[in-house]
Amino acid sequence: MSSTHTGFKHLPIVDVSGLFSDDIDRRLATARELDRAAREAGFFYVTGHQVSRGQQGALIEQAKRFFAAGHDWKMRYYIGNSSAHRGYVPEGEEVFAGGKRDRKEAFDTGRELPADDPDVIAGTPMLGSNSWPEQPGFREAVGGYYEASFELGRALFRGFSLALGLPEQHFERYLRKPPSQLRLIHYPLDPSAEDRPGIGAHTDYECFTILLPTAPGLEVMNGRGEWIDAPPVGNAFVVNIGDMLEVWTGGTYVATSHRVRKVREERYSFPLFFACDYHTVVAPLPQFATPEAVAKYPPVSAGDHLYAQTAQSFTYLKARLERGELVLPDGSKALASFGQQARYASAEQDAEG
């Protein structure tokens, strides 16, 4: 593995407008910038993304209206009632490594699949239909933003393909119906909160994440194990590498650990967790398949990994596991198995051994 993950103090900024150009030289130049940011930080801002401020504003407005509604009404769309893991996530439902519950609520959506889709009929986890609330304009605004940000994700994947020396459309074959989820997150006003870690440190389980932040609070772990602030920057998204790109690159791109600080102010956040198709088998690409990488990153089903991590994080799924109603896929990893924290834990074990 040749990761150059550094002790960065600020996130790099990449103008990705070149990815939408007809000029291959511009696309290649942008790909080189993406590659540098992914290797050195695994977390970076992107500008020139072509997701309009109008689409962003409509999403934020609908989220504010939804979360301002009463608890009983929101629970009509409880995620535990969905066969596709879509809907309302009440405060305390999600638990990260170490058993930490987070004071936030959320609403999860994904790509709509019809009831007669073979994967839906087969009961493939994370795939199916959304639980749209009866709120005027919600479906149109959220669905429109989802499609716009998904197109950005496809463009980023084309950039990563070029960066990794692959045909530009290499990853497109894995994006037919991925379980990519858009999450609307609300951090309620908490006057008693101290400025301290809130959402537990974690990596994201998918390929990468495209985040629309609206307020400070995000922190990123650099290559020295230091926590670095990642405040919102203008009309920029925050992109971070997830577990599956770490596997594909044999650890050259690191799934960067991050957390959200617990502060008093009310705020909102909107990550799109960009996944590949559920049945995609992910292993180090040939150019990264060193003996060390192959040993550390055995082939993994992208969907099984996502589902296993999700099942260990959500209270309603953990309860089903305990009752024997669900079984984790074979070879499932524990939470916090990727990123810098996993590397530090492995180094400590080697030292103790």
Q: What does this 3D model show about the protein?
A:
It is a single chain. The chain is of the alpha+beta class and 353 residues long. It has one domain (13-352): Jelly Rolls. It is built from ten helices and 16 strands. It has helices spanning 24-40, 53-67, 71-74, 118-121, 138-163, 243-248, 291-296, 302-311, 315-322, 339-352; strands spanning 13-15, 43-47, 87-89, 95-96, 100-101, 105-110, 181-187, 196-202, 208-213, 218-221, 227-229, 237-241, 258-262, 267-274, 281-282, 300-301. The strands form four sheets. Strands 1-2-12-9-14-7-6-3 form an eight-stranded mixed β-sheet. Strands 8-13-10-11 form a four-stranded antiparallel β-sheet, with no helix packed on it. A two-stranded antiparallel ribbon has the order 4-5. Helix 1 (24-40) links the parallel strand 1 (13-15) and strand 2 (43-47). Helix 1 (24-40) packs across helix 5 (138-163) and helix 2 crosses helix 5. It is globular, with a radius of gyration of 19 Å. Residues 344-353 have low confidence and may be disordered.
